[in-house]
Amino acid sequence: MSGRHVALAWMQRCARSHAELAEALRLSVRHRSGNTVFTSTIYEPGSSWTARWSWWHKIPLSALDGDDEGPLLIVSERRDGNGYCVLAVPRVWLRERRSLLATFGPHPFLKLLLSAEEAELFVDGPSGLNFAQWKIV
Question: For position 13, what pLDDT does the model report?
């Protein structure tokens, strides 16, 4: 089973007892693009180009399109390997900051390189934007 499938199964189990996660999942699956949940494994300092604990999320720009009803769910493996951290980031918030975020590829993607270091947890390295306010789990 892929890391994404494991993360999605974990989220479904947790949603049974976590109302905010259940609502975020309900809203996110209604988005027409289908691009609503983005997962990352934890990268140890020796495996990360930052040489620090981090997560790398690749989000197609098409995921920012459309209505603002459902959030994008950014799911990151915990450092201890025991579950995930979930950020429910409003599309409008990302759209408003798109020019600050790194993009790449022939089919444009946002590239989020989020810190997993305690002192700067969920701060995107290239832009300096702090995503911690969107943590629900």
Answer: 78
